[in-house]
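Researcher: Please predict.
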Amino acid sequence: MLLGMPDIAPMLAHKWPEPFDGQDWLFELKWDGYRCLMYIGSSQLLLRSRNGNPLNHRFPQLESVTKAVKRDFRNLIVDGEIVVFKGGKPDFASLKTNPGRAVYIAFDLLYLNDQALLEVPLVDRRYELFRAFAWNHLIYFSEALEAQGRTLFELVRSRDLEGMVAKRKYSLYFPGKRTHDWLKIKNFKEIALWVVGYFPSPGRKIGSLLVAREVSESAGAVPGGPPAHAQQDTGTVHDSVHEVVFRQSVKPKPRRLVLMGRVSTGLDQETEDALEAAFSPPAPHPLAQVEGKLSKQEQRDVRWVKPFFGVRVQYTEITPEGRLRHPVLKEVVW
């Protein structure tokens, strides 16, 4: 028991490939933060992560949410997300760098006035949730759009948000279970990358790929050539030939590759075998100019290969450190 209330595990959502419409569905933004159950009882508040870890010490300002509970409501368990907004949208990295700005986004109510609401339909749980709080700068109600999933996903794409969640209106709450009553649709992007190495894993020669993007030189005058103001199209054959000859005489620069992390999801046995045959023999040191840091353990485990182009990788965002979040290997570009 937590503050005299039952210990409940969050209900989980299945992945779904694309947005859809449906009269029996509610559609909410997928808040890019920490999933958190909020227990409120006897003027006390407990924040519990998806894995059951306490979060009060990381976000102490949220303990003031108890003041927002209305008079006729007591002993609540709320499901939601701890989020930090940056530039008008949730920013996952800011949860660590700026936790003092975190707020709570509430989207479900599981327990109220000493009664469990797990077998109450979602629309009714959300109605009670909306009534329970005087919403303020620390706690927000997660608005939902009825039936129009595609419309909401257009907003997700236009604002470059993480995704959306579709929930059946009359779904019950199944603690700790992943059901098709809740579906998460992520706003994935794709990028073509170089493979510069790989990491073995137990039972597999290639457990994950080390990928990097190529950094292009800035546009402008050709190094060592005529100044930019002189590089104009005069319309003469002589100038055109001179430009071609000059460019061919310039020694090409080595590629600059910047690490973007590791990719393991989507790497099946067939792809692993094909890549192993295509890679150069592994080496203990980089075989190209590669920028970016690896942990000490990764430095010991990595098998560097001659840069191979390439692979297409799906991801949700690029972190401030330049690494891919939620990377998935989609295909090898031969």
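Model: The CA atoms of residues 70 and 133 lie 5 Å apart.
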